[in-house]
Design goal:
homodimer, 322 residues, Nucleotidyltransferase, domain 5, 2 domains, 8 helices, 13 strands
């Protein structure tokens, strides 16, 4: 029997899940709705039912060893989701404890989605041989997972690694966290859309993006416009890389990582975001760190990086217990 | 025979040293000149000679188990001092290797002075029961040692934890590192002097500090003036705490520490610097971290914190080897 774990990636709209073996292969994967459930217990019953169904064709071939969960505001120490603004469930949800009732005896571990991505990178991805690195997810917001000496940094409370909320600009752009000027309001798939709109207001040059409403505009469209030479789109990437790169220089002064991996919607723009980020990071680094820190694309497939990350978390816990 | 280690704290002007037992008592301590030696080998011979002399009265009573060294630009992985701007010795000095020739068989360990202070806080000071904390030294510059999960963060290259060089103000004050706008140009014993001078230029109110040249002025004088109600001195502390506190809020978003300890010249101003730092840190924290992070004075005696830190480093290495 092949050993495997269940990886669950809880997002605001969908929950993705998969059966992940020790080598990082997804033996089965699918998704359910998150947003349609106002009650967590109902959601969990439906989710675990769907997972059981997806696993049926593997019956007798695999032995499930553990469950890993990546979720917004996931607390590794407590196994809880705490006051996540983009989920329907208020307060503190004891997710790991509730899942453990369905799977008695299994190791259940939970952390936030970006931390899970970092563990995914370490266990299955480009950071296999690294001890010190950071993963930055550039989606609707900016998430981060920091690894120091081969171990994910959780901090005193399980909530370390919120680089999306370092301050870039005092009294700057409104942020979803209720404050102003946070990094994720500038450097994320949403942030670059805001930057395009700001540039359309500031500049008088032509741009194909002038015909697009804010709601229609996606990071992918900005990327495609930039590849066609659109000056507003190109400047938006440059500014985004400038803000991200100069802030990452400060982050390097904290943990001196070997590499910083980019993942998620905006990272799919590849060189368009990597190049200015690298350039401005180098310009802002303390000389002692110059030319030492790689900016890389995550080697996890964007499609199921969250599921692989959650699976990697489960494997990581099992390996630690040995 | 009592077990002890040698703790050596190499500064730009003086080198302090002491014989430190397992409980953090200094059984003997003294200092030599650093700046008078242009040749490292001569310096080391004189230093180790002086240490031997200081230990003579302990002969037969102690057994030396290891040597710990704190030094500017000290590299823990390599045991080297690398291109330290305020030392006379250029390039890369293999300090641990050279000391090992005098003490064959002993464990020799080296790190930078702020990292040594953090280990001192963990082994002998106020962080004995903490796993996640940060030590900030506010002297001529701003040094930092970051502890995550009970282990000091060294990073890929041994140089992690340079919070003095995160950027506060793009194109801001000149910094000793050759760049502009670094935190230590504002938040340090030197930084607050610069802030006083800036305020004396900006404001028209009276101040006892108007009679003082920049060279005469010390952080202690500013502290004493503030205690007498001098408005410029009080505003200087408020501004320093504002800059330090708001940057520490960003640092908390990296490693989520239980406490941040302040140490060194400017920390001797106690509440004058602690209170505004705490206030502005809280104002700038992501809500999830609010009211969780203590700002504390180091409980190591300022006089020999460096020696105790270096001694703690040596004990820490010996404990790890067990």
């Amino acid at each position: 029997m092949k050993e495997a774990v269940i990886g669950i990636d809880i997002g605001g709209t969908f929950t993705k899940y998969g059966i992940v073996d020790r080598e990082g292969n997804c033996l089965a994967e699918s998704f359910t709705n998150t947003a349609t459930h106002d009650n967590f217990d109902d959601y969990l019953r439906d989710l675990l039912g769907a997972i059981e169904k997806s696993m049926q064709f593997l019956k007798g071939q695999i032995e499930i060893r553990g469950v890993g969960i990546g979720a917004p505001n996931g607390n590794y120490y407590k196994g809880t989701i705490e006051n996540a603004v983009n989920l329907n469930w208020r307060g503190v949800i004891p997710v790991a404890e509730k899942i453990a009732r369905y799977y008695p005896g299994l190791t259940i571990s939970l952390t936030n989605d970006a931390n899970a991505a970092a563990i995914g990178e370490m266990v299955f991805g480009g950071a296999k041989d690294m001890k010190d690195f950071i993963v930055i997810t550039l989606g609707t917001g900016l998430g981060s997972g920091i690894v120091v000496g081969g171990t994910l940094v959780y901090g005193q409370d399980g909530f370390a690694g919120e680089l999306g909320h370092v301050i870039v600009q005092p009294d700057g752009r409104d942020c979803g966290c209720g404050r102003k000027g946070c990094l994720e309001a500038y450097a994320s798939a949403t942030g670059i859309r805001r930057t395009v709109y700001w540039l359309l207001a500031e500049r008088m040059i032509d741009s194909e993006l002038r015909g697009m409403s804010f709601n229609e505009l996606t990071a992918k469209m900005i990327s495609e416009a930039a590849l066609r030479g659109d000056k507003i789109a190109l400047e938006a990437f440059d500014r985004t890389g400038w803000i991200l790169g100069s802030k990452l220089a400060d982050t390097v002064a904290h943990t001196s990582p070997e590499a910083i991996f980019l993942l998620g919607g905006l990272a799919n723009s590849r060189e368009l975001i990597i190049n200015p980020t690298k350039k401005y990071m180098e310009e802002n680094l303390l000389p002692i760190y110059c030319n030492k820190v790689k900016i890389l694309l995550s080697s996890l497939p964007d499609m199921n990086a969250g599921v692989l990350g959650a699976g990697a978390l489960a494997w990581n816990e099992l390996n630690r217990k040995k």
